Amino acid sequence: MNRFLKYTCIAALAISLWSCKKDDDVEIVPVRERQEVYDENITKIESFLKSTSITVDNENNVTFDSITEGSSNTIWSQTQYPLQYIEVKNDSRTTNKVDGLIKDPVTYKLYYLVINEGGGENPITIDNVFTKYTGYNLNHNIFDKNDTGFWSGFPETIYTPSTVISGYRQILTKIKTATSITENPDGTLVYNNPGRVIVFIPSGLGYFNSAQLNIPGYSPIIFDITLVSKVHADHDNDGLLSIYEDVNGNGDFWDDDTDNDGTPNFLDLDDDGDGYTTREEITFKIDEGGVMVDELYPFDEIPNCANGTIKKHLDKNCH
Fold it and tell me: What CATH number should be reported for the domain holding residue 154?
């Protein structure tokens, strides 16, 4: 995976990612107050949107051109790809513990353009996704490009592919995967009707004070992202897909900690803390030609304890 989407090591007082990887191209600049940086960034982004046009040609190439602010064909004013935004919090982690969310008080605006909605399914932020991208600075220059695609996921575990910055990850929920994927006779793949979005990311949801090659510290950036595919992850390899470990059903996978050990269920090998792994508790045996073979219950068929009302892997009194 290209270094521009890797989490990178930053000074201890400015940790915005829970795991660091060496990158000789990273320059750490002094840490500033996040709200102050965001206020500057959003002003720059909105000025860019009001003084720049966008063209997507027949080959799906994007061109940004500076034009007079107030013109009807600025990104801000054009209607071919209506400008939208969502307000989000920084979901980066200092650790994978329940209380490991980065300390960032800012509510961020993520402006975006849906170039194509896609015909498949919307991912959630903890899915593993296959994407392609082009990254731009606000001066219209490309700083990075990946036309072949790569897998990424969140949060980082030994079972997770490469991780990406928060703004990149969170905007993917606004588009869908490809309708289908077909293989040509030469083995190349065709992605039919994938989702595509262009997102304008404040540095607080990007690299913040960690300068990258052609990306100075505290710089807003642009990503043109194509979403090809997604799969639900099993982050702790306990036999349960993580989407089934949101016990309270509120969409927050970090506040479900059945045994109160500080590790959320979707990252915990023993969800109820009874000394038996979740995988053990959702395993049963079947007879295949005289040989007993281990199988995992489908989620909906995991039994409750006798006379219980919750599934056995979440009840420490049930073995």
Answer: 3.10.50.40
